[in-house]
Design a protein that fits this description.
The complex is a heterodimer. By secondary structure, chain A is an alpha/beta fold. Helices cover about 35% and strands about 30% of the residues of chain A. The radius of gyration of chain A is 23 Å and the shape is elongated. By secondary structure, chain B is mainly alpha-helical. Chain B is built from 10 helices and no strands. In chain B, helix 3 runs antiparallel to helix 5, helix 3 packs across helix 9 and helix 6 runs parallel beside helix 10. Chain B is elongated, with a radius of gyration of 21 Å. At the A-B interface, helix 2 and helix 3 of A face helix 1 and helix 4 of B.
Chain lengths: ~325, ~280
């Protein structure tokens, strides 16, 4: 089937990777990424995001299960799969022996372009990614943001069906991060299918059409950011900081706050999930102090993907 | 800008994959040639200085100052002739180390550039084989540059007797073997252990590689004559001795098969290690 007729450009079935030593980095993952969407793999460090991206891009051999990119089995036909993917890895893998423009030119040649096409595409991408004035410098002299732009330009040069970005904004300054988000937004408008891994919930929320939340190699939830946040079924999460027996405080708040859907003591705080926030904050302080607890801090957050992650795993994303 | 995948990325595996592989292999080779051209300013001194000094000191300075090398009367002239093969062999082996092993240690090391190279649309083993091909080319280039030095610099006459069929078959084999040696070393050593490569591997290989003396002359030290047989450089230098001069040499019936065997061994070890390091 021609690639342009395939609607699900990435499909994994029970994809599993067990590293020597028995670590199950990815455990029976079922994913499906649709043509044209920005798909996020969100999870803490060590959740299995990079291993998943590694398997989809032929660099990690799955222990079991199946992975198809553009309808091509990545294990059985790695060379064919490599023709339809573009990869922006976590670290700077630019060719240090070549200049900025040569990095693009030779990438085009690796992917079968003839001389003149590779030259034309190089100059077009240098303009598009605002690197034209750096065309002849060595890549080591580029700033982090520029190097990242060049790696994105390189990855899309051969018109891949899927662009993979592994933690694309880790280590970038805020300005470069926003610039990269803009670039990805433009590519998305042009129809590029993008899979990115991230542990920044804001990034997943701002960029992705759909987000898969994974932890310990397992898929915990998969939906649009909005649906994920609604699925928590709450208006806000209130975090109460107080001295004393927090388990007892949790019990007290659970009994006295009628809007609470669940209350738990975690990490030196009590978390109160409420359906309706209005009037709850004063009620929490009143109930706590009536029972002898001195509340030292109180904060409420609307549901974010972080809240979703906490509700799914009981722990915070950045641990 | 349109990003829609082109028809050429349709998975018509067999033929389109073969074409992609061939083009990617050629492009990687062109990339290495471009790097060689850019770095010619480094390539020339690093390739020429060592053989030049070797030839200059042993076959120009020593005879001029009356310090004999080669023992008996007329030994100097014979030594100049004998050294030609060793210098050519040494130049080829050093390209294996310098143009394959050392860049590879860096690409596997802190830059992780290799991760991008293995995403080229070709089997991973061929990414490794391309390095062997490029190392072989560098070796050939170095041999062509170094040969005139060995033939011209000595103060005493160099008697060349070129056996073309041997030269034209042995040279590519020697270049390939040293490219494969570079691949094996480049995947065995990493950035922490690479200083050992020179200290405990390259140094004995060169000093005990039949560069400065024919293997046959080691008859005087039988245990050493047997020990150095594990050194691939011995066979290469002896082979070049047969190809370039009338100096006595090891039988070619030994030289060719052993060099082929070493080539196969280094290639196998190199590809196996390369795959282990880029795939998990």
């Amino acid at each position: 089937m021609p690639l342009s007729d395939i609607d699900e450009v990435i499909v994994t079935n029970s994809l599993t990777k067990v590293y020597p030593g028995g670590v199950r980095a990815v455990d029976g993952l079922d994913l499906s990424v649709r043509r044209g969407e920005i798909f996020g793999l969100l999870g803490p460090n060590g959740a299995g995001k990079t291993t998943t991206a590694g398997m989809l891009t032929t660099r990690v051999i799955p222990t079991s299960g199946e992975a198809l990119v553009g309808g091509i089995d990545v294990v059985r036909h790695p060379t064919a799969a490599k023709q339809v993917i573009g990869v922006v890895p976590q670290t700077n893998t630019l060719d240090r022996a070549l200049s900025v423009s040569e990095n693009l030119y030779f990438h085009g040649r690796y992917f079968g372009m003839n001389k003149s096409t590779a030259r034309a595409e190089t100059s077009r991408l240098l303009d598009q990614f605002r690197l034209a004035d750096r065309a002849d410098v060595v890549v080591d002299s580029l700033s982090g943001g520029m190097a990242q732009r060049l790696m994105v330009a390189r990855a899309i040069m051969h018109r891949p069906a899927i662009l993979f970005l592994d933690e694309p904004t880790a280590g970038l300054d805020p300005q470069s991060r926003i610039a990269l988000w803009d670039i990805l937004g433009e590519l998305h408008v042009d129809g590029q299918t993008i899979l990115l891994t991230t542990h920044y919930m804001e990034e997943a929320d701002a960029l992705c059409n759909r987000v898969a939340i994974i932890d310990h190699g397992k898929l915990l939830a998969l939906d649009t950011p909005r649906q994920l946040k609604q699925s928590v079924g709450i208006d806000a999460m209130v975090t109460v900081t107080a001295a004393g027996d927090l388990d007892q405080l949790a019990t007290v708040l659970g009994e006295s706050i009628s809007a609470a859907t669940s209350v738990e003591a975690v990490d030196g705080h009590v978390r109160v999930w409420v359906r309706q926030l209005s009037g709850v904050l004063p009620a929490i302080i009143e109930a706590a102090e009536r029972n002898g607890f001195a509340v030292s801090d109180l904060s409420s957050t609307e549901p974010t993907l972080e809240t979703v992650f906490i509700s799914l795993t009981g722990k915070e994303l950045r641990e | 800008m349109t990003i829609a995948p082109t028809a050429s990325s349709t998975p018509e595996f067999a033929s389109s994959t073969r074409t992609a592989t061939r083009k990617a292999f050629m492009a990687l080779f062109l990339r290495d040639l471009a790097v060689l051209r850019k770095q010619l300013g480094q390539f020339l001194p690093r390739t020429l200085l060592q053989p030049f000094l070797l030839v200059f000191v042993f076959t120009y300075v020593f005879p001029k100052i009356g310090q004999g090398v080669g023992g008996t009367t007329g030994g100097e002239a014979q030594f100049s002739t004998m050294l030609v093969a060793g210098v050519v062999g040494l130049a080829i082996m050093f390209q294996g180390i310098q143009s394959v092993a050392l860049p590879m240690v860096q690409e596997f090391g802190y830059t992780r550039e290799i991760e991008d190279r293995v995403l080229a649309p070709m089997p991973v083993s061929l990414v490794a084989m391309e390095k062997v091909a490029s190392g072989a080319f560098n070796g050939l280039f170095a041999a062509l540059l170094v040969f005139p030095i060995a033939a011209i610099v000595p103060a005493t006459p160099v008697h060349l007797a070129i056996d073309w069929p041997v030269l034209l078959t042995l040279t590519p084999l020697a270049c390939f073997m040293c490219g494969a040696l570079g691949l094996a070393f480049g995947t065995i050593f990493d950035s922490r252990t690479v200083p050992l490569l020179f200290g405990i591997v390259v140094l004995p290989l060169t000093f005990l590689g039949a560069i400065y003396y024919p293997w046959k002359s080691l008859e005087a030290i039988p245990w050493l004559q047997v020990l150095v047989l594990v050194n691939p450089l011995v066979y290469m230098c002896e082979g070049f001795r047969a190809a370039l001069t009338n100096v006595g040499h090891m039988s070619l019936l030994v030289v060719y098969p052993v060099m082929i065997a070493f080539s196969a061994l280094f290639t196998w070890v190199g590809i196996r290690n390369f795959k282990r390091r880029v795939l998990s």
